[in-house]
Automatic annotation (TrEMBL):
It holds the Pfam family OMPdecase. This is Orotidine 5'-phosphate decarboxylase. The gene is pyrF. The lineage of its organism: Bacteria, Bacillati, Bacillota, Bacilli, Bacillales. The active site is at D75 (for ompdecase activity), K77 (proton donor), K77 (for ompdecase activity), D80 (for ompdecase activity). SUPFAM superfamilies: Ribulose-phoshate binding barrel. It comes from the Bacteria. CDD domains: OMP_decarboxylase_like. Its EC number is 4.1.1.23. Catalyzes the decarboxylation of orotidine 5'-monophosphate (OMP) to uridine 5'-monophosphate (UMP). Keywords: Decarboxylase, Lyase, Pyrimidine biosynthesis. It comes from Alicyclobacillus macrosporangiidus.
Length: 255
């Protein structure tokens, strides 16, 4: 049954949603991550390595995924002074990931230093530069969290902040942003063509939200202008992850 479903999901009609998908490997060891990767087989070619796996088994996981020919979004959300972020990105460049991210709130000097560090590393190695995207307002933050942080008033409303930080990312030469689906339409309206809007934290209708606050369904996210979705617990913790993925892909393709 699962082999038949894998084969179905490998069909060319799913190529568009396959390229727009990163499955989140939010587990602490490569052994656990590898079991998930095997479950999806050839159907999934894009994975997100976040903080848990990176600190648990990062180099092993990244080189294993690379040798399997998988695309990797390294979701380490760097946030530090420009010199430190640039150094971290030079070290990350050797992993040849497809995409990596920093926090937009690190500011213009940090964003520019990040992009320049990746440009130089790519020039020196001859390897394609990873896409660099900026995290706007975390999808787990609600109005009361923003208020607690002192972000109040119309300019600090999540949509306004996300749009402002997306504009900053454009001016600093980044390739896109990570944002909630709720802000994707607003960002798409002012972003240049080809600007990536990576949306995590979506949930199929009726699915538990866990710690996600600003969330829509995968179909709604695509309709709003998302270019890529990160699919996490709604798929990876499902009783049958492959069937859960199939349902999400049908919804994404329909959108
Ligand atoms: O604003 C953000 C930025 C990153 N994430 C990451 O995406 C996944 C979402 O996982 P779910 O299980 O679907 O909630 C997770 O790895 C986060 O670190 C995010 O959720 N929101």
């Amino acid at each position: 049954m699962s082999q038949a479903l894998q084969a179905l999901l490998c069909e060319p009609r799913y190529d568009g949603v396959r390229r727009a998908t990163y499955v989140a490997l939010d587990v602490p060891t490569w052994t656990q991550a590898e079991a998930l990767v095997h479950r999806f087989g050839a159907a999934v070619d894009g994975y997100k390595v976040g903080l848990e796996l990176f600190f648990g088994d990062g180099p092993t996981a990244l080189s294993a995924l690379r040798s399997m020919g998988k695309r990797v979004f390294l979701d380490v959300k760097l946030h530090d002074i420009p010199n430190t972020v640039a150094g971290a990105l030079r070290a990350i460049a050797r992993f040849e990931v497809e995409m990596v991210n920093v926090h937009a709130s690190g500011g213009p000097a940090m964003l520019t230093a990040a992009r320049e560090a990746l440009d130089r590393a790519a020039e020196a190695s001859g390897v394609v530069r990873p896409l660099l995207v900026a995290v706007t307002v975390l999808t787990s933050l609600g109005a009361s969290d923003l208020d607690a942080l002192g972000w109040t008033g119309p300019q600090a409303e999540p949509g306004a902040l996300a749009e402002r930080w997306a504009g900053l990312a454009v001016r600093c030469g980044l390739d896109g942003v990570v944002a909630s689906a709720l802000e994707a339409r607003r960002i798409r309206a002012c972003a240049p063509p080809g600007f990536e809007i990576v949306v995590p934290g979506t949930r199929p209708a009726g699915a538990p939200r866990h710690d996600q606050v600003r969330s829509l369904t995968p179909g709604e996210a695509m309709k709003a202008g998302a270019t890529r979705l990160v699919l996490g617990r709604a798929v990876t913790r499902a009783d049958d992850p492959l069937s859960a993925l199939a349902a999400v892909w049908v919804e994404m393709a329909g959108a």
